[in-house]
Amino acid sequence: MLVNNEAGEKNFEKVKKRLIWKQTKLEDSMQPPLKAPFPKPDNREQFWSDFENKSFEYVAKKYGGIGLKNDAKLLLRKIKRKIKKLVVKGGKEIPILYKRKEECCGCTACYAICPKEAISMVEDEEGFEYPQIDESKCVRCYQCIKVCPIKAARAQ
After folding, report:
1. Number of other CB atoms surrounding residue 60 within 10 Å
2. How far apart, in whole angstroms, are the C-alpha atoms of residue 28 and residue 79?
3. Three-state DSSP class for 112?
4. Cα separation, 139 vs 113, whole angstroms
């Protein structure tokens, strides 16, 4: 929740006892592309050339993570997750904040709420930040899941 005026402050005071919250600086909650212009990718001209002159399948495989190489990566990740489930700390699994980037809005709520600072925001290739859990620090309190606006919206 962003509180930036008196009306917002009054509304927040009414509900803050029922919330788990942490005050942060606005700059700490902003995605890097919103702080400054995004740099031009090195391969932009090549991408547009390929887009105009090559097949969709070629462009999808080269730039979109589609194909045998990506399938192999996904299979290895799936196997790794299954192995981790067999060796679970304290009987609880590590929270899964998102499976696909579309399932994360980058609001940093999970990062802000984590009592053990086990969540860091990691920048992807496009400059957007997504949460990453340090499994050695995570105590599996699931506060990150409870505070997530995407997960809360899906639960309703």
Report:
1. 13
2. 34
3. helix
4. 13
pTM score? 0.47
Class of residue 141 by CB neighbours under 10 A (exposed 0-12, middle 13-18, buried 19+) = middle
Q: pLDDT, tens digit, for every residue of 65-96?
A: 777 777 888 899 888 877 776 665 556 788 88
Please give the Cα distance from 17 to 15 (Å, whole number): 6
Distance, in Å, from the CA atom of 41 to the CA atom of 45, rounded to the nearest integer, reads 9
Q: Which of 141, 146, 90 is nearest to 116 (CA)?
A: 141
Find the helix or strand (DSSP H, E) in which 32 lies.
helix 32-35
Tell me the one-letter amino acid at 41: P
